[in-house]
Amino acid sequence: MGLEKLHPFDAGKWGKVISFLKEEKLLSDGMLVEAREASDEDLLVVHTRRYLNELKWSFAVATITEIPPVIFLPNFLVQRKVLKPLRTQTGGTIMAGKLAMERGWAINVGGGFHHCSSDRGGGFCAYADITLAIKFLFERVEGISRATIVDLDAHQGNGHERDFMGDKRVYIMDVYNRHIYPGDRFAKQAIRRKVELEWGTEDDEYLDKVERNLQKALQEHLPDVVVYNAGTDILEGDRLGGLSISPQVRPCPEGGAGGGVQQGRWAEAAAITAGLPEAAGPRPPARVSLPLPPTGHREAGRTGVSGGPRPPGAHPHGDLGRIPEAHGPHHCRLHP
What we know:
By secondary structure, this protein is α/β, with parallel strands linked by helices. It contains 10 helices and 11 strands. The protein has a 5-stranded parallel β-sheet.
């Protein structure tokens, strides 16, 4: 419908990423699972019925997505063209948690809607997929009772912070530009390791702060699952993030996966994930990630979940509401 052109948020980046990874042969068919739309039953694990009913009004969706023309669309079109894709990405995050239990790690190319909480949306985030993924694991997987959220989006993740306010099972590390949206002072009370950045923060300072604070976070809280929200709006030139992180090749920090050099954003991600297995205990944590770095490819509207090689007998899909028993600590990554 072209609605994505009315907002600086790149709503087509997820399909571009999948196309890029396939073209570069970084993903095999056995590692890619098509995300499934989250049902009302799934959403009600976290969201209030009142909030879900509010989404049946085009005005409410226009406010959440910050696209004013949505007000004038009949709601059946809003449901189909705006909310269904977001529900599918939300289902992908829940599914990524499930796959991380089966395969040790998983990445949801969409999702990371960290401004949405149980009873309100905002900042292009209509569903609280991060909270949902963690709640599903807590409630339906034996032995999963402690989680760490590592939120590296340029904006404060006030949605999951509000949802887990006072919940000692969930440790939140949030690294964000302190001068931009949402500036939610109440939600900041839930952050256990807060790293506030200034306008134009550059590579060396950023990576140093991330590495030092991540090490401390993993010492302070031993998680069964780690959710990594890896927003790409930290990159220089992003109109919303206000930071100056280079997309160029950078030296991989000591201990980073792959050795040598990796793409700037990947070097950071590799440094984070490389430290998790040792910090989380003798068995490596499972990983669930959301959006990946944007590319120049032009395929919009698709989202998927990638995980480790499928174990024998594992079905490529699965009921979002039924998560199998898992063993050992796990790690999940996400970003919008």
